[in-house]
Amino acid sequence: MKYPLATSTWDDAELAAINRVASSGLCTMGENVLAFESEFASFVGSKHAVMVNSGSSANLLMTAALFFKSEGKLKAGDEVIVPAVSWPTTYYPLSQYGLHMKFVDIDIETLNYDLKSLAEAVTARTRMIMVVNLLGNPNDFQAIKAIIGRRDIILVEDNCESLGAEYEGRQTGTFGVMGSFSTFFSHHMSTMEGGVVVTDDEELYHILLCLRAHGWTRNLPKINRVTGVKSDDPFEESFKFVLPGYNVRPLEIEGAIGIIQLKKLPQFIEWRRTNAELFVELFAGDKRFIVQKEVGRSSWFGFTFVIRPDAGITRKELAQRLIANDVECRPIVAGNFAKNAVVKLMDHSIFGQLRNAELVDSNGLFVGNHQYDIRKNIEELASLLKDI
Length: 388
Known about the structure:
CATH topology of the largest domain: Aspartate Aminotransferase, domain 2
Oligomer: single chain
CATH class of the largest domain: Alpha Beta
CATH architecture of the largest domain: 3-Layer(aba) Sandwich
Shape: globular
């Protein structure tokens, strides 16, 4: 494709790191992963970071950890509010832990929560709000926290598509008790596969460390919030299991790549924002399309087009024009996820009408943004779509 969705962010530095770690014979998480976690936490402004094998696993561990807290833990049947537009792995862990998901509509401009619908959807039964910062765009956290008020509602962030985004000078992924990130190939930085959970809560951090690797105590500090105090005998602690965990550990290679990618990330994000300035200039006034409205400082994962119902254009026509001219495009995330057949297998309800999610589902698509200068591509895109 002349204008692909995503391209590699690697150069010789990442390849050298792979060779260095592979030659060491140390495969699973070790010193490189620990160093990456420390640097990642510092980058986003969080106390703790736990690297895992994917952003999907990051969401799974976040959900699981909330079931094993000493106080205020979740239980099966609790109500969690979710946006109707997101990726499947926002929802799957919630269902797998027996939570009741209430789907709420999105704002057609920001593609995040419709704040009026969210406020009306919150009830005395609501125990958690899953906030998804879609395609690099922050939610209005001031409004969401006002909706929560003094109610005992947990706020968690799926920030897998929005690394580097900021709201009121603070990085997204750090507004909830935990936040998830993805370092998959097509995201803001890449470690092959990979994900991270961040938190300021020490107890949740220790639970995450335990759940990440079999539910054993081996990776916990001597004094910890899961078992209290560990034995000094490594043999005794080697196979001691205390939580029903997983094996979602990252590779040492991924940690080593992550350290290099983090150094490049600020420049990656600046180019994404520079590209976005031109995109917004060229398309924000186009009456045929609704383009994503920035909240705070987006890290601009990609560029969306939602065709207005009266535009006289179908999504199929738009997609065909793009593909025929070597511009790669996709539907906007998973569209209205509530209409998927898999939802019938989940404990869920739908709040009100999901009109905007349905419009995104039928009339929306997105094209890529990149970590380098693609302003020429964006100008060609504008010329390409001028007469359709």
